User: Fold these one by one.
Assistant:
Number 1:
Amino acid sequence: MDKKNLRTNNLQIRRSLPSDEREQKSLEISKKLEGLDLFKNADHILFYYTHESEVDTVPIINKWANKKQIYLPKLRGENEFIALPFHNFDALKKNHYGIPEPIEHKDDKGYEKKLDLIIIPGAAFDRKCNRLGMGKGFYDRYLSQLPDIPRIALAFEEQMLDKVPKDSYDESVDFIITDQEIYKKNS
């Protein structure tokens, strides 16, 4: 099956999960994330802001915003984003996809150099830590510029496939945390 059809099928599976089940699974995933040394030792973390049926990051962002420096993506142009500091939920503005993001100020730059950890969404994953995103390449372009920063994807177990098609430009992750497992690259 090609990427487009896999994405469509997996997004339908994710959307079909009842909201209370997604909420419970998101909580289990967050607890597993918080238990990882990578998370415990990170001071500067880029999260994604939950969109539609993704693993919910809002509670964990809220929980850690006063203890760690949290960043969120801010779209730039048609196909890229930068990391900007998260201050509070009231200081976010929805982008053209309807996803809340920080407002950029003229002195905002260079935050990528501070990142210790990147938390990533996706449509589908496999046990080798390959990722199928939403098809625009935002994260692939972003991650290709930051090869040494650890990457953790958050997903529901239902999003796991035997194999995700991978092109040369597709960036994998180091870990995938689901409600049932923690998958590690090359294990």
Note: The mean pLDDT is 94.
Number 2:
Amino acid sequence: MKSLDELIGERRSVREYSDQPVEKEKIEQLLNAARLAPSACNAQPWRFVVVSEPTARAAAIKEGLGGVVVPNTWAKTAPVIIVACSDLSLVTHKLAERVQGVQYHLIDIGIAMEHLVLKATELGLGTCYIGWFNGKALCRTLQLPSSWKAECLITLGYPASVPEPTPRKSLQDISVVR
């Protein structure tokens, strides 16, 4: 079994997937990893929509990634798209944003998605975070509840190729120790 440091080091943004389907059991493991993430006031604002049925996936890509969002057309190669949504009806998050000026639900979603992508890496799956998409069209296409807001997409599948690591800034460039 690989260490967490090894998984973090191996995780890549995959933009080309094989056509091998992702097993339902593996998807459940990913969602469970995300479910176990911490959240502000333990509100667990995340809601996940797994889009793997070919017709639904094609519609989601056409509506959510079509038009001016052309750079993400490579997502068509992913056999699964996970739409990470916030449930905006949660009182704790509304109140916290008004009092603190912080959108805690976005922090919570970010932590949950990191759990998910690291679990995917452990299982030999590739992922890529997509933040540029038409959320309103996507929610309409997937017929999501009105209190849900699509925050990000994660493409998921078996990589057709694994990209080389991208350069990272040094610790000295990103940190201050006092």
Note: The chain has a mean pLDDT of 92.
Number 3:
Amino acid sequence: MMPPVFSPKPDTPLALDASVVINLNACGRGRTILSAFRNPIVVIDVVETEIGRGNRQKRQDKLALDSLVADGIIKIASLDEDAMQTFESLVIGPAITTLDDGEAATIAYAVHTGSVAVVDERKATALSQSRFPELVTMSTMDLFASESVRSHLGHDLLKDAIFMALLHGRMQVPKIHLDWVLGLIGPEKAIQCLSLPSFARVLTLPDVTKQGRKSQQR
């Protein structure tokens, strides 16, 4: 099965949210994946701060981000005055209509620079599509599914990278990619990935369920 593929224009910057950076670090192939794109890769300083804050795992993600920045693979950017106003409109108000700082900063930057916002949270994607219908968004899974990344990694490394991002990064998988992901990693690995929908993890093990029932009947 071939995955749905979205290919951004080569010169369009990709603005990565914190969850995307975390997923790419968790997969163990983040450097290769980002290097497969001809697009400029940007992380907003608000996101950089968010990644560096908190537990030991996040601090490790910050070190990985720092390394990618030092090597010129990722550029740290800031919001200008107009983007800052959009950012504030996305973080101030009722919880149902607002986002966390990193998502809001990523979307605000993308809106005002013509970048692609790479975000994973469904709420952030839905809200950005509602408020900014011309904004192009992608997910971490869209990065994995791109033709250039699949070509760079090959089948086995891609399968391992997606599994590690699911297992350690708790990566979210959009519905459009779910069948492809389940077919790629297989049922034994899928059952370990708690970020996958529960129905997907159960339904991928029909043979195991049948064998268990037969054993009980003996």
Note: Residues 9-218 form a domain with the Rossmann fold fold (CATH 3.40.50.1010).
Number 4:
Amino acid sequence: MNKHLDAVLASVAETTLAELAFIFSMLDDEAVRHVSSALIASSVDFSGPFSGSLTLAVSADMLPTIASNMLGLDEGDTSPLPNLQRDALKELTNVVCGNLLPRMAGTQAVFKIESPRMVEPEAIEGTEGQGPVARTRLVMDEGRAEFALFVKGEVPALVQD
């Protein structure tokens, strides 16, 4: 894996989680010891100057918070329905991917981003013969979020920040 690309992915993921879902990462792993280890994941494919996918796996306990925050629900409101929770996760994956690609390829590059889809949590590990080129894990009060970037073929040189 590329350490600089890992850092770019972490930066984009952290910023997007904060701005879109109002969820902030922490340095301390202790916060998630009480949280279920069950993960739920979504993935989005992209093509353009290079092709690949971005996969996001989050603690299942985080889904109601992600959806409520993205939908602007008050704390006293009932938890969003499971289908809205999955839609929020897919949209979060889509937005992180949309924010990451210009950081990798520059703002002039054109990509086609497919519709995000739910995947098995094991997808974060990749498939036989293809592991992620970048990976990051963020820890929050609500649980954890793991991001993995997969690129088909050559990993592109990063555009300078």
Note: The domain at 3-152 is CATH 3.40.1550.10 (Chemotaxis protein chec).
